[in-house]
Amino acid sequence: MDVTDSDTTTHINLQALIRLQADARALKLPSARPARARQAGLQHSSQRGRGMAFSEVRLYQPGDDIRSIDWRVTARRQAPHTKLYEEERERPVLLICDLGPTLFFASTGAFKQVRCAQLTAILAWLALSAGDQVGGIVFNGNALTVQRPARRKKSVLRLLDTLASQQRTSVDSAATETTLDTALAEARRVAHTGSRIFVISDFLSISENTTSLLGALARHNSVSALRVVDPLEQELPKSGRFAIAGTEGPVWFDASNKSFQQAWHEKITRHEATLAECFRLSGVRATDVSTREAAAASLQTMLGPGGRIG
Question: What is the pTM of this model?
Answer without folding.
Answer: 0.77
